[in-house]
Amino acid sequence: MEAEWEYAARAGTRTSFYTADITSQETLYDECCQDEALDPIAWYCVNASGSTHPVGTKLPNAWGLYDMLGNVAEWVNDGLSGSTPPGPVTDRGGLLPSKPRSLTRGGGYRHWPSLLRASNRALSTEWKERSPGLGIGFRLVRSL
């Protein structure tokens, strides 16, 4: 679920990244720029050299989770399958699509700092429709 992903990514923090808030506000939405808070924890447009990198080569968050931000954006399964579940349905941000889609979280190696914020969410096409080179994946988790 999307909320569980954000909870895990933040690891108890309330900042843009789990290390600190976003540094560069003047180029927040339209430019690849270096962010000092992001450099030690994520592969992104400034330091990734246009490709993904092995997991665990940057610092983990406080809960020991690596690559929660950057490297590859992660698909989250949050019921955006096009079917309506039984009971009341709440639109959590106006993103309920008319055809099957899912959300990605965490941003990828081609993204600039604002797209790697723990709160950022983006619509994504289904796995079978993905474009090569986008840096999208998923994280396997299990409840105990």
Task: Explain how this protein is built.
The chain is low in regular secondary structure and 144 residues long. Helices cover 6% and strands 10% of the residues. It has one helix at 2-10, and strands at 73-76, 102-105, 121-124, 136-137. It starts with a helix and ends in a 7-residue tail after the last strand.
List keywords for this structure.
144 residues, little secondary structure, 4-stranded mixed beta sheet
Strand content: 5-15%
- Give the overall pLDDT as a whole number: 78
In what order do the strands lie side by side in the largest sheet? 3-2-1-4
Structural class: little secondary structure
Overall geometry comes to globular
Number of strands: 4
Q: What's the gyration radius in Å? A: 15 Å
Query: How many helix segments?
Result: 1
Order of helices and strands: HEEEE
Low-confidence stretches: 81-85, 87-100
N- to C-terminal separation? 16 Å
Question: Largest sheet at a glance?
Answer: 4 strands, mixed
Helical fraction: under 10%
Please outline what is shown here.
With 144 residues, this protein is low in regular secondary structure. It is built from 1 helix and 4 strands, in the order αββββ.
SSE topology sketch:
Elements: H1 2-10, E1 73-76, E2 102-105, E3 121-124, E4 136-137
Parallel strand pairs: 1-4
Antiparallel strand pairs: 1-2, 2-3
